Sequence to fold (380 residues):
Amino acid sequence: MYLIFSKPDFTIHNQSYEGFPLLLDKGCNVFVEGVEFLIYHCLKRGSVQSRRSWETFGRDLYDFFAFLEANDLDWRQIQDRTNETLLAVYRDASFEHFNLSASTVNRRLHLAIKFYQFGLKQGWVSTLPYDLETVKVRQPKGFLAHTDTSGGVGAKPDVLLKTPSTKIKVLNAEQIAELLKTIKSPTLHLMVRLALSTGLRKEELLTFPVSRVVKPSSTTARSHIVVELDPQEMSIKGDKARTIHIPVSVMTDLWEYVIHERSQLVRRHGAQPNTLFVTAMGENWSLKSRSLNNQLKALSLPFSTHPHVFRHTYATHTLKSLMQKKSLRFNPLLYVRDRLGHSSITTTERYLHFLDELEDDLRTQYQQEIEDICDELAKV
Fold:
């Protein structure tokens, strides 16, 4: 089994799909059923809107069928020679012999399950290689509670592994202060501060366009500046435009960074980047590079400093702060959902489950904390 990615001449209905995953069997013939499924899953369904997801889906499906091919198993047979379902055999080998995490195995199993569901409708198979079992499911809290009709139970394929519940990691005020005091690089400092203040994803930080930085004195904004994120200008998950609110103090420092630090780096190396943040060579950051993660890891702090932790921190503290304002005229959950760019409010709703665990000393005005910390740093 081989996995390749299409060139610009790969078209469907006269539209080019460069970089689309294609599966070939060991004879280098197109694995028609696999490609048909990927076309349905990635292109025909409306939920997959980002081309960056294609590679993940392609590699996951390739891994499943490559395993079957290597072990001389026919995907149409549903069960192997010991009467185990093919999905169970693949699951056990992935988890026990290849030492993959339960979450990775389940992600690949979910895609294989969708393949067989699609195959059943297409008539490729006559039955599905799994049964359903009843499980407890998380019920909504807050204003979404009345929408729940599950009764706390649901059904899931019995081949999936049990995964431990993952606790959202959030930084408290003391950790934020320690983090910002430790960072010496002006670029990294502002990247972290912008992430903590807006909840931008890593790829959004790296591709944030410099054209979106404005001189604060040229606006009438008092607390924050509205910034429109356009997928035509930067990398956004799902290619969905959205609006974020950047505190005036943060925008002020971003403006200073652009005309001083960034300007010097770009001029020194003769580059012409279109992103706000640039590397030490004055160039755009690569989305495939782990440089940002490595720089944060090199700080050697005793708590997690992964970029997504900053996103969780923004979401949780902002939600808590807004919920404490009794005179608020909008729903805090909807506000945070829109700022984060979540497709479903149930994704944002998970932060409600974490709010009860916040200590009292964390229940303060989040944005004001960030600004106070930075004001203190400026005095040093």
About this structure: Confidence is low (pLDDT under 50) at residues 360-364.
